[in-house]
Amino acid sequence: MTTITQLRAFLVAGTVGSFTATAKELGLTQPTVSELVRKLEDEHELALFVRTGRKLVLTAAGEELFPWARRVVESADGADEALRALRGIEGGVASFGVLRNAPFYFLSDLAERFHQEHPGVRTRLVGQNSFEVAEAVRSGELEAGLVVLPVPDHDLDVKPLMRDEVLWASADPSRTACPMTMEAINEAPLILYDAYYGWNDPTRRQLAARAQVAGVRLEPMIEVENIDSALGLVSRGVGDTIVSKAVTRHSIFPANVQTVGFAEPIFDTIALITRQNATLSPVTAKLAIMATTMMLSPPS
Q1: Range(s) of the domain holding residue 119
Q2: How far is residue 272's CA from residue 98's CA, in Å, rounded to a whole number?
Q3: What is the pLDDT of residue 86?
């Protein structure tokens, strides 16, 4: 079978015109270079050089092989360079799933900061619902990601990082005067976000499980896709919603909306997920460390 080493020796010999010069360039002995080319010729039963005079001259077969050999060798060299870049965090692509509500967890500057530290790395940050991030990591579309638990965890390694309390939000002060109970939820129109994923959304699933135990059926009056849309409706008195505590610290949180915890507290648990038995590329591993650090150490 033809090897990269044989093709490299042939390519250099065809370029410099001598086995001696080839040996010097490749750091090999002249007999070793001659043997590499001879084995290549013997394998295909074709002469690749005319060995007369002081300079090697390509035969017709050699002329035909030369461009193919150059492509193979250049591709191999390119692969080596790419791997060296990855090892040194100088190139490659980092693919990472972030929380759809990433700005509330101080992750909005993640792409800029990572690019500043590693300008040669292409960064692919995908902000989706946690359910979809889990599916993307499981399928290999993403290498890793941050999610809110619970998510289906088969074929995934899950590393919980932090908890964030889920609060009840309302513009009606009487609705936040005391801790919210499951039985009291439906006394005002319920507004929920993440409409596309519905009850697959991890926070919603927790709420639904609590309501089921209490014998309460949750039926949102309005469902929207984004949390800021839900908060806009709440601020205008249309209904109530749920938010994580991180959201209440953000500038978009309406001044006239109050919050209160649940009588039995509910928490979003944020976790880092990767595929089981998979090794992260160096660039994605570095990005995961930065994202985790930014989330756990928010600016004061």
Answers
A1: 93-157+277-296
A2: 10
A3: 52
